[in-house]
Amino acid sequence: MTLLAALALALLGSFAIEAWDGAGDRPVGRRPGEIALRLAGYALLTAFWFCFSWRPWLAAFSCLLTVAILVVVSRLKHAVIGEPLVFSDFALLRQVPRHPDLYYTRPLTDPRMAVPIAASLALVALWYWLEPAALPEEPSVALVALIGLPCLLAGLAASLRSGTPARRLAAWFPRPDLDADCARYGLPATIVAYTLRWRTEPSPETDGADGGKTDPAPVVVVVQLESFVDPTRLDGPALPLMETIRTRALRHGRLGVPAHGAYTMRTEHAVLTGRAPESLGFGCYDPYLSGGGDEPASLARLARASGYATLFVHPFHRDFFHRAAVMQRLGFDRLVMEEDFAGAPRIGPYIGDEHLAERILAEVEAAAGPVLVFAVTMENHGPWKPGRLDGIADPLAQYLHHVAHTGRAVEALVAGLEGRDAILCVYGDHAPSLPNCRPGFGETATDYAVFRFGAPRSRPERADITADALGRFLRTVVAGHSSEESRIGYRSPRVMTRT
Predict the structure, then answer these.
(1) What is the pTM of this model?
(2) What is the structure's pLDDT at 127?
C-alpha cells in the first residue's frame, strides 16, 4: 500500500506541475491516450529512482523534483531558444562543468552551485536513513529484486525498439513535433519516446561524393560567423561590411537556419552536408550525435575527391561538440584549433575574429594547391554579461562591439583574396540570444554572402535561402558541377512542425 500511495503522489503531483506550467499557452493533452502515456512517463521516472533507493517516498519525491527541474529548465530554454528540452540536450551535460559560461551557469566550485548540491546530497542521505527500504527481508529474494527491477526496465526499453511496440511508438510519434508532443504527453514521456525513436529510425540515405567534372576555383573559404546578423536588424549601427556585401557579393541575403540563439551544430551540419533538417528525422536536434560526422557526401569529402586539401579552423577547445573527431570524420585533412592560437589576442574570453582572418589568409597563402578552408569564429559567442568587456556592461553593446570586429575580419578576407581565383562564403550560424532578439526573430534567419574573385564581376543577386540550400550550392563550387543543385531557392526554415 505504501508503494501505491507513493506512486499515486508521484503521478498526480507531476501531472499538476506540468498542468500548471502549461496553463494558458500550452495546456496539457486531455484525451485518454495522451493522459495514459503521460502518466506512464511519470511512472517510469518513479521506477527509475526507485531502483536506486528502494524507498517509495524518496522515489516519489525524486520524481516530483525531476519533473519540476525539467519544467523550469525547459521553460528557460524555450524563452531563449524557442524550443523545449529534448533528449539530445542530455548528451551535452558532460560539457557543462568544462564550459559553464557557454551554458549560462556557474562552475561547480562556485558556492552558489556547490552549497545547494551539497545540501541536496545531505538531504538524500538523511532521507535514506529515515525511510526504511522496501526490500524483502530474505537476502536471496532481496538480491533478485535488486537485479530484477533494473533488468525489467531495460527489457521494457528494448521491447520498444522493435516489433509491434516499436510500431505503436512510431504511430504516436511519427516525426519530430517537439512543442506539440510535450503538450500532449509531457516532458518525461516525450524525452523517452524521442530517444527511442532516434535510436530505432533508419539512417537517411546519402549520395556518394564523386570528384569534380570541371575545373573549380582553387581556393574556397567558408566562414561560419558566430551569432552573426546585420546589426541594423537589432537597431544597431550600420556595419560597413553590409554595404560591401550589397555591392560586391555574387549572392547574398537572409539565411534560414534550423535554430535560434544556439545549436551551432545544426546549421554547421546543414552547410557541410547540404541536408535539410527534416531529412534527418529525430536526429535533427543534434546531427553530430547521430553520425558523429560519418557523412560520405560531406562538403569536405567531396572537395578532397576533387583534389582539394581540406582544412578546418576553429579557435576553441577540440573536445567541444566532439569537434575534432567529427571534423576528421567529415573529411578534413588538418585541424587548426585553440592550441594553434597560443598567444593570440583575445577580445573578451575568446580569440578575436580579426586574428582568425589573418590565420585563414596565411593558410591560403601557404597552400601548395587547391584548398578548402572551413572556419568557425568564436569571438561573439554568448553569453554577453557584465564583466565580459571592460567598460561595456550592456549585452547588446557588447554584441555590437564584437560584431564590428567580425565585419572588419570579413572585409580583411575580401581584401586578402582579391586577385585570386577564389570563392569566399560567410554566414551566421544563428541569431544571438539577446534580450531584444528572442525566438521568432526573422523566422530564425541570419545573413549570408558569397563572393567570387578572379572572374568578371556580375551584378549582385539577392536570394533568401536556407542553410542546407547554401550547402548544396557550395557542393557545386568544389565539384565544378553545372546542374540543378546550383539553383538556390528559398524554403521556409520552419521545418519542425507536424502537418
Answers:
(1) 0.87
(2) 85
